[in-house]
## 1
Amino acid sequence: MIISENAVVLFHYTLTDESGNELDSSTGKDPLAYMHGHKNIIPGLEKELDGKTAGDVMIVTIKAAEAYGETQDERIQEIPRTSFQTEEMSVGMRFEAKTPNGPVSVVVTEVNDETVTVDGNHPLAGKDLTFDVRVDSVREASEEELSHGHVHGPGGHNH
């Protein structure tokens, strides 16, 4: 079966950054499962997988705009330190910030006596990513999977 709209795809991958550092891998784990055409994976990788079949292998570099997006400066903010309920603030801390558009996960990038700088961008925003992919299997989605918009069972979502 060819990877196309509504196909369930299982694939193994190794993800590296622009410097070749490994960021993630399915090695030694179950393959990643997703439903093609339902925005379950980054857009650039989904485009590259379109038309492939089980057994296909590829190494592709996905530009930041087609991965987790470009870094958005408006998602980086300096907040008065007095706005936080804790004295213990350090670079790398993560928490959810309340915004008019709902909660946003942020990471502390700088702390001084007066302010705390937080970044609400995805950790991989602004980065070109390289995927080494091997398509494991391709099948038709079940009616239940189609109605939910994601894969069920091994490698997918369980309700």
## 2
Amino acid sequence: MHTFWKTIDWILDKLKIIGAICLVGMTFLTCADVVGRFFRHPIFGSVEIVGFMATLAVAMALPYTQQIKGHIGVEILVRIFSEKKQTIIDLCTSFLSLGLFLLTTWQMAIYAYEMHESGEVSMNLELPEYYIIYIAAFCFVIFSLIILRDIIQNIIKLRHS
């Protein structure tokens, strides 16, 4: 099982790097497009590409953000509870999150398949959009696995307390 989680961590690191590259790429492409527009030569399809990169950057950042507990949470009330109650609350929210994101992943995969079957492409560059949706769904699978690991760790924590 340790090897499985090591593999997930390795994938997580690669997703983080690719997400960062997408973020930098969005910046450079937007700047180049603005400069090009100033000289009356905008970059054709830059809005589509930036949209794709933004989608990928967000999807690839979610698992890492979950791992480092970087998501925003309302902890003002929860902080006054005992550590055991905090763990139980975290366990409940993690179970709900896992259910939500497994459902979201499943629906994204269905949507990507339907887009693939219909042959739908982006408006200007005519790029197949289903690739982006499949990649985002894969990122959500990794995100769900990170949530599952949190659930397992919280259960172990409760057993030892």
## 3
Amino acid sequence: MTESSSERRFILLFRLLMAWTFLYSASQVFNPNFSVAGFLSDTKTFHDVYAVLAKPAFDPALTFLVGCGHLLIGLSLLVGLMVRLSSAVAIALLLMYWTAHMDWPFIGNTDNFIIDYHIVYAVVCVYLIAKHAGHVWGLDAWAEKLALVDCHPRLRRLVA
């Protein structure tokens, strides 16, 4: 690691802030009044793409999967294990949410012109991948040394 101690603190801070964001989001998804179909049926720019997923038949399964995805991403970032994978999945989700909120060129409302917090969060996740954030006070450094990872080199990409 070539980062200074202050940069390592920022990496940890960003990782924990993103963990909190996804863990809190997971807690909201498990609210019985929440529905992914309700969220997706409000889309404007890419309505035809998301309307397929907004069907009532898909809602229970999709709501469960979104909640579990948020929970797993949040836990991964919290403990620093498989941060590369969880950050990549987080980026994909954030970009989907960004397009779902889009009423081109505004995102969510007229206060956000093209860029909103989804893009900022996605950039933070890119930073976490680039800086190997799981190695900064996380379990990725420990997991990289496991015999299982030595035996299966493909696993190294998840923790390296």
## 4
Amino acid sequence: MDQQPSSPSSRKANLVGVQFQAAGQIRDFDPGPLTLRVGDQVLVEAEHGHMLGTVIAAERPAVAAGAPPPRVIKKADARDLDKDDRNRLREREALRLCLQQVRDRGLQMKLIQVEQAYDGGKITFYFSAEKRVDFRDLVRDLAHSLHTRIEMKQIGARDEAKLIGAVGPCGRELCCSSWMRDFGVVSVKMAKAQGLSLNPSKLAGMCGRLKCCLRYEYDTYLELGRALPAIGSSVESVKGEGVVTRHNILKQTVLIRRADGVEVEASLEDLVEKKVQ
């Protein structure tokens, strides 16, 4: 039997991953007939118009199910880049204007960043605030002055640090602003599992929240900790019988307090039997 040629919709085309800001979300786009490489700047279809982005992943496999991905319109040329530069200048002017109006009104909000849509149809102001802010009058006056649609977006402390960027206590650029694309859940339990001091000033990042890097070695500590007897359990070792008081997970040893009050360090090889409670 002759095989029917596959329709264009049934063929799987490779997609390209595009980001619109440093360490931002990667979105998939259909490049069509274009040959694109990592680092190329492209003009793409977006929900509310066109956007200028950068290709950071080529030949991502397409997902068969669901709506077709938006397409890449073209590679950015000199005119597109010039327009983007003009947008950056307009963002600075919009930020200056908004800051002045926020001060004049005495609004308790901190402006973080301004984003001008590529086609000029919208300007988005990102801000942080401890309480609810009534910015209806502010939006009306900004729209009148800038002659475009205005959107205000309140963001949290972590997003603020990501947008602003900084150098962390490790001496390197913040992970969130340099390469992290998503914020994972971070808890004090992760610090406890790694035997870290629960000093808030030591555990807090530049955003004032728990450091994202507490997650990096957490799973490793959990895996290594499973091999050690629980703290408080009675054990027998070549160094004497006693109760486990502390773990040294990386060394894979435990501290045992003997009946005479002396504490000894024992490795897993030193343990000969764990008593049943």
